[in-house]
Design goal:
Number of domains: 1
Radius of gyration: 16 Å
Strand content: 5-15%
Strand order of the largest sheet: 2-1-3-4-5
Structural class: alpha/beta
Oligomer: single chain
CATH topology: Rossmann fold
Shape: globular
Length: 185
């Protein structure tokens, strides 16, 4: 077990070391601009990435809002199971995010997708819609970035084939961005 633990932490440390901080800086700048203009931040993901998306919403609604006094408008499209299952049942799972985004979003809102593979049909579809409607798009990706990396304006990529490592890094990036914005009153 000790060997497994050491290898996991070494791998995590190595992947964190090679995250493109320039892309994180671009993402933070875009988030700051969106907050200043009182536009919405939309986020989404599947599985563990849905949990990160929901956590992202909580950290901004509760943490960043309280620490800065700013009213940050953020919605996780992954958070309403009733809406997700209704859309999936009637129109297909590939539409669960795009149908919500079409209704809620407007010009200058941004979309953050979290996808380890970058190939989920519902992620691709919402990114394509956002791009077509001139919304800026952010992506947290893993593996080879999939189709989503070709669509997103900003891609913070974790070059790993291990879901755990990818999601650990995505969670850290989410916390890093929220904490940076919290401290920058």
């Amino acid at each position: 077990m000790k060997k497994f633990l050491e290898e996991y932490f070494v791998s995590l440390k190595n992947k964190i070391h090679f995250i493109n901080t320039k892309e994180i800086g671009k993402a933070i700048s875009l988030l700051e601009k969106t907050i200043k203009t009182n536009n919405f931040i939309f986020c989404c993901g599947n599985g563990g990435s849905a949990a990160i998306s929901n956590h992202f919403q909580v950290d901004y609604l509760k943490g960043v809002n309280e620490m800065t006094g700013k009213k940050i408008r953020i919605v996780s499209l992954s958070s309403n199971i009733e809406t997700i299952t209704a859309i999936a049942n009637d129109k297909g799972y590939e539409n669960v995010f795009v149908d919500q985004f079409k209704i809620y979003s407007k010009k200058n809102d941004i979309l953050l997708c979290i996808s380890s593979s970058g190939n989920s049909k519902n992620i691709i579809k919402v990114l394509q819609y956002a791009k077509k409607n001139k919304n800026m798009t952010l992506l947290l990706s893993g593996f080879d970035g999939g189709q989503a990396k070709k669509i997103a304006d900003i891609n913070i990529h974790i070059d790993s084939n291990n879901y755990g490592i990818i999601e650990d890094c995505h969670q850290s990036i989410m916390h890093l961005m929220a904490q940076y914005l919290s401290k920058k009153r």
